[in-house]
Design a protein that fits this description.
With about 250 residues, the protein is of the alpha+beta class. Helix content is about 45%, strand content about 15%. A hairpin with a 2-residue loop joins strand 4 and strand 5.
Amino acid sequence: MSADTYTKTDRSAHPDFFAAEAAGLQWLRDGGATVVDVLDVDRTHIELERLIPTSPTGDAARRFGAELAGAHDAGARQFGCPPEGFTGQMFIGARPMSSVEHPSWGAFYIAERVLPFLRTAVDAGNISTSDAADVERACGPVADGVFDDADPPARIHGDLWTGNVVWTASGVVMIDPAAHGGHRETDLAMLALFGAPLLDDIVDGYRSVHPLRDGWEQRVPLHQLHPLAVHAAGHGPSYGVALRRAADAVARLS
């Protein structure tokens, strides 16, 4: 490994783990996004370009937002689909993630992105059965299509918390995707969840390429159900509490 590269190694990793990351990065790049360069990958490691972080700027934020909108507009086959040409197991962080495809967003989102992780969170003791039941009730109208719209599946990063957004001298570079066909508002909601810097500028850049539907800000808790469920599955009861609160907000919307 040279000073210009960064290598992640895990000899016990799932055979598709690093391949999924590489496929997601390439798919986003094909859609026009700026992502970290993959230099080498096999079943036990991935070697990446080393990024040198710098301070965020408004110009970089707006360029990033515009690029993100363009990548979303590059589209996907269906909701839940993996990166084009990839047929292996998908992941979000270290957790396996479904690649079952759906023609409608709400049914996909609840069945493949929220409920599987909610069940794991219950088993882990990080959310009570009564709170989980409230989450499931809030999910019912979502699965039934109350929030579906005419937007086609977007090519989303899928795990776009602020730690996967690297500010460099040449602009924002995305890393560590859980890329799949999803809803464009999901990436924006995840940026908001963990406090991405200059989010207003990012959104301004995004809207310069693709307008957002009215009410998108009120739907942020809806699109945070997935990342909160993932975190509740493995990062403690505080995320179970946050998941319940987001579900309450969704129930008020529907």
